[in-house]
Amino acid sequence: MADRGRPRSFDRNAALTRAMELFWTKGYEGASISDLTVAMGIGSPSLYAAFGSKEALFREAIELYGRTEGPQIWDAVENAPDARSAVAGFLTATAHSFSRPGKPRGCMVVLSQLNTTEASASVCAALRENRAQGQSGLEARLRQAVAAGELPASVDVGAVAAFYLTVQQGMSIQARDGASEDKLLSVAKGAMAAWEPLTGP
Amino acid sequence: MADRGRPRSFDRNAALTRAMELFWTKGYEGASISDLTVAMGIGSPSLYAAFGSKEALFREAIELYGRTEGPQIWDAVENAPDARSAVAGFLTATAHSFSRPGKPRGCMVVLSQLNTTEASASVCAALRENRAQGQSGLEARLRQAVAAGELPASVDVGAVAAFYLTVQQGMSIQARDGASEDKLLSVAKGAMAAWEPLTGP
DNA sequence: TGCTTTCTGTATCGAACGACACAGAAATGG
DNA sequence: CCATTTCTGTGTCGTTCGATACAGAAAGCA
After folding, report:
1. Which CATH superfamily is domain A69-199 in?
2. What is the Cα B34 distance to its own chain's centre?
3. Does domain A12-58 sit in CATH 1.10.10.10?
4. Which of A25, A110, A183 sits opposite B162 (nearest CB)?
5. pLDDT band at A25 (very low <50, low <70, confident <90, very high)
6. SS3 content of chain A, % helix, strand, coil (to 5)
7. Per CA to C1' distance, which residue is closest to C22?
8. Whole-angstrom Cα distance, residue B20 to residue B88?
9. How confident is the model at residue B1 (pLDDT cuts 50, 70, 90)?
10. Residues in A touching B30 (Cβ below 8 Å)
């Protein structure tokens, strides 16, 4: 009963992927509807019929980004055998992810809308919430290590997570400024040099 | 011969300061001419007569930012008695500067235009150049310490500078997301925990 | 007091913005 | 084949963008 009428002439998922790449490159406000329709290969009425609005399209794009790009970083955190290799994997996977040839550099969640304007307030809030999940994810992995007796209970889990998340967010700026994967890996190595002092008894 | 004609009815420096604060808060593309004229308390013809264009106004605002906000961070680097306190001062001054009540949070050079669009390409390039000067500044201070025999010659000066600059740039994101000065200081402390491993022989 | 020069306020320019009306095209169900 | 439903392409809506034309106001110089 839902497949009546003229069928959609484009691949919705493919179009969403193109939109994600454009938002990733130009940001939320930087990517115009005209830019998007060209990149997606459709007319604006098709865009609005399929996605509702620019903001709704962006939210779907962010969701797709988290589903496709997120695991490359977060699988390493969850599956690592110990907390140190979890954080090290987090940063090395980030270095790799932020510098892949043919893909926009840096993290879409960090870069696509940092300045809150009247029109982008809700989008900014959603991105901020998304970034806060990064803090929670790292914290959870560290708490797990404390519970397992792997790290001393005296470790300030929130502070350690905030430090490594801050480094990762800084890597988005570095990546946008052209830093190579090697340079990003060097930054990750620098951050891991703080591990023993930060987590020691 | 230049003071003929009707005199300007507003304080150019005061208006520029207001423009800087608005660009700092909303970004280059996020601050419209209409926003700017309201904040500066002048009409748009006065803005164009006094500053030339939106981009020229922004460049003056960035220059003012570097002249007024920069020293709070960089004086600590240049005047510190040793390299470690130079970098520690760099980060603690950053934590303070990025969380001052009544001022926009984070660094204007990092936050005001990260997504390159057709209209903002030259502004983005200028900001990137400005960020690169941060790398050079830190590197120079570290090289000076190596030359003085304070740090071993084996230290990878560029890598250490890149690490600390990356942390500082990440602190801009954290500050925009609402991190308190204490939280930023905690991040700075975390980064300094890497100092001895990074600069040891 | 003119005359020149420069700035201010109103009003507006063409372009681009996000969003959509409308008519025709392309599918299914009867 | 026809009616119904849904999508596509053209064209355009009202708004806002950055940037100015123009006329009048306010100063110095003669």
Report:
1. Tetracycline Repressor, domain 2 (1.10.357.10)
2. 25
3. no
4. A183
5. very high
6. 70, 0, 30
7. A45
8. 28
9. very low
10. 29, 115, 117
Task: State which nucleotides on strand C lie below 7 Å from a protein beta carbon.
Answer: 4-12, 16-22, 24-29
Best B90, B166, B180 residue to mutate vs chain A (most A CBs within 10 Å)? B166
- Give the distance, in angstroms, between residue B4 CA and nucleotide C13 C1': 30
Contact present, A23 and A31 (Cβ < 8 Å): yes
pLDDT of residue B129 exceeding 50, the answer is: yes
**A162/B27 CB distance under 8 A:** no
Protein CA A5 to sugar C1' D6 (Å) = 4
**Interchain contact, A167 vs B167, CB within 8 Å:** yes
Which residues of chain A form CATH 1.10.10.60?
12-58
Is the pTM above the cut of 0.90?
A: yes
List, for residues B35-91, the tens digit of each pLDDT value: 999 999 999 999 999 999 999 999 999 999 999 999 999 999 999 999 999 999 999
Calculate the angstrom distance between C1' of D9 and CA of A137.
46
- Confidence (pLDDT) at A1: 46
Task: Tell me the DSSP string of A56-68.
Answer: HHHHHHHHHHHHH
How far apart, in whole angstroms, are the C-alpha atoms of residue B197 and residue A107? 28
According to CATH, where is 1.10.357.10 located in chain A?
A: 69-199
- Chain B 16-55 residues whose Cβ is under 7 Å from strand C: 42-46, 49-50
d(CA A122, CA A28): 12
Residue type, B113: Q
Residue B11 has pLDDT above 90, yes or no: yes
* Per-residue pLDDT, B2: 56
Nearest alpha-carbon partner for B77 in B134, B130, B136, B138: B138
Residue B170 identity (one-letter amino acid): G
Q: Containing H/E element for A36?
A: helix A33-40
What is the CB neighbour count within 10 angstroms for residue B183?
Answer: 20
- Of all protein residues, which has its CA closest to the C1' atom of D28? B4
For chain B, give the number of residues.
201
Q: Quote the Cα angle for A144-A187-A166, to 5°.
A: 55
Pull the structure tokens for residue A119.
Answer: 């029109």
Nearest to A163 among B112, B169, B191 (CB): B191
- Comparing alpha-carbon positions, the chain A residue that sits nearest to B175 is A166
